[in-house]
Amino acid sequence: MAIPVVVGVDGSEASLEAVDWAAVEAVRHDVPLHLVYAVVPDHGAADLIAVAMERARKSAPSLRLSSEVLHEDPASALLGQGRNAFALVLGYRGRGDLAGLLLGSVSLAVSARADCPVVVVRGEAEYRNGRFGSVVVGVEDGEGSGTAVQFALREAHVRRCRLVAVHAWSVPPGALSPPPPSGYALEAHCRPPAQVLDDALRGRAERYRSVTVSRQVVEGPARQALLAAATGADLLVVGARRRRGHLGLQLGLVNHAVLHHAPCPIAVVPQM
User: pTM for the complete prediction?
Assistant: First the structure.
C-alpha cells in the first residue's frame, strides 16, 4: 500500500492552499492524500474536514482521499503522521498564528523535527500553480544535500520541468585559516564550488536523464542566492542534517531564512 502525502488542515486559508497543492502533488506521484486535523476539543471538526475534502477533490478529482481527526496538539500529531508519510504539507501560517508572523509556529516546529520531507506552501497563486517550470535545490558541501538533491530531481521529473542546482560560496576575508563553513557557504580554497555541484549531482542525475539540470555557482550569502533563485521557481528544496545527540534537524540560519521569506513553496528534506 502506497504511503500518503499528509496535509495538515485547520480551516485557515493558508491550510486550504496547502490542500490544493498537496492534492496535485499526490496525483503527480500516484499516492493517496490523507487530511489531518488535530485539535482539542474537536468542535466543528466534521465541517472543517468536509470543506477540506471538497477542496481536495476539486483540485484533483481522481485522488485517493482519506481524513482523520486527532485529539492532540497539531505539531505532535503531524510529527507522528510523518513517520509513515511520503511528505508532510503545511500552510505557511495557521489559524491561531498572529497576522504579523512570517511563518506559523506549527509549520516551523514540524519542519525542524519531521522524519520525512516537509513542504511549507508559500507564495502567490502563480508560484503554487507551476507557472515557472523550475525546481531549485540548494547544494552545500558535504553530505547534507544528497537526499535533497534526490528529492528535487524526482520533483522535476514528475513535473517535467528543469532543475536548477545552486551552490553559494564565499572567500574568508584575508585569513589563512578560515572559520568553519556556515549554511551553504564554502571557502574557495577548500574545494572548487563547481566540483561541489558536480559531486552532488553525479550518479543521482543519471537516474533522471529526462530532467534538464543547470548549475548556478554564486559568490555570496547562501540565503540571498537561494531566495533570488526562488523568484523563478515553483518549488525550492533544501536539505537538513540530523543533529547529533538531539531530536530533530539542524535547520540553520539559511533554512530559517528561506522558510520565512521564500516566494514559493519550500521543501525541507532530512538527510537520510
Answer: 0.88
